[in-house]
């Protein structure tokens, strides 16, 4: 459950928004599910002549304690928190949301106690968000019934702790590793969501996040990673230290624009916490970071791309599927407390990002969604040391290199073979989710379980799966794992 806190100074304006159509016409059937008083008494009435809502009385009720506070009151006295469930959690009914809302405001301290009166509050529910999330809006006025102002301290941090508590209490999944101290992923802004909805395209920030992560899969150095990003068609820029124009301290990437459009740049840390330059550099702790000149000179031709015949591509994919099957088996034999886990989990996330780039270039589909979720399961602690070496991570890097060489399927026959890689990647993720659960890291295990849930349908016999060819035409293939292909040992290295 994800809490998002905002502040305001107009109760009526917020109510008009909550009972209005919403920015994406997502507000369907707005209604109260809980409040400081009986919801049947608080609920606004719908007007017969225009279908609107009479919000005056509810606004007056919520405003009354603030009016009593007068000049003593908090200036931004309207406290609003949306409690949102990830789409994979599904939907709850009104009765459960009512209980969650009541417990949340109580744990936040808004309902008062023996020494202090409580605040007035309501919980409003309407349709799913623009991104398909079930959610409820809590509105609290920061003044007690006797007119005393309520001054908050660290309420956003406390809301995260309360959400964590309620996940356990109500049996909800733990899908947000950032709450457990892992690097955080910045959310899409409302303009980004609106642009994507109007265009029908995946938001650029999400496409860039996956491309940058896929470029890290198998990269042997910082310069190699930069070359791979450029090879994927990304624009790359550096941020240098104020006193040294050659010392790179940050970077930004952009999609190559079409026509006269200007590129939209995103800093690495704005894509995902673990894609900031300091986090990326933990992979090569002993290496001297390349200069700004070396970043600029990094050549896409240095990334492992060569022309392959159709027969060669098929051989690479078959060998990759075999390698992934073997790696899945090895994962099950690694002890939950092994120091290999951080590197192996990270390499698995990067490998899945590479598979998503090869099979779902539009940035839409189950593999893409699983890659995003698995990246959160692999998110490192913000101040963790560089992870220990892992032979599994090395092998996953070799498979990622092989997939980079092979590229996209050219026809339906190749798509059928590439599907075997997708299926084995799905099995790898399922194995990883089971072992993450054994480590008793609830948030990482929840994110890994979400990734596995996206891919589980691919493991059902007879299901129709679409793998697009290079022409962009999806080729529907019945899921059937091909016979065990011949092993091309080390082919990720051989194709360089």
What can you tell me about this protein's structure?
Helices cover 44% and strands 14% of the residues. The chain is α+β, with helices and mostly antiparallel strands and 496 residues long. Among the domains are: 2-173, BirA Bifunctional Protein, domain 2 (2-Layer Sandwich); 190-302, no CATH class. Strands 1-5-7-6-2 form a five-stranded antiparallel sheet, sandwiched between helices. Strands 8-9-10 form a three-stranded antiparallel sheet. A hairpin with a 6-residue loop joins strand 3 and strand 4 (53-54). The longest helix is centred in the last third of the chain and has 27 residues, at 412-438. The protein is elongated, with a radius of gyration of 26 Å. The two termini are 44 Å apart. 41% of the residues are buried.
Short description:
It contains 18 helices and twelve strands. The chain is elongated.
By CATH, the architecture of the domain at 2-173 is named 2-Layer Sandwich
- Name the helix and strand elements from N-terminus to C-terminus, one letter apiece: EHEHEEHEHEEHHHHEEEHHHHHHHHHEEH
CATH topology call of the domain at 2-173: BirA Bifunctional Protein, domain 2
Structural class: alpha+beta
Beta fraction of the residues?
Answer: 5-15%
Q: What distance separates the N and C termini? A: 44 Å
Assembly form of the protein: single chain
**Helix fraction by DSSP (H/I, runs of at least 4):** 40-55%
Mean pLDDT: 82
What are the segments in which pLDDT stays under 50 over at least 5 consecutive residues? 471-496
User: What's the helix count?
Assistant: 18
The total beta strand count reads 12
Cα shape: elongated
Report the CATH C-level class of the domain at 2-173: Alpha Beta
The strands making up the biggest β-sheet line up spatially as: 1-5-7-6-2
Radius of gyration equals: 26 Å
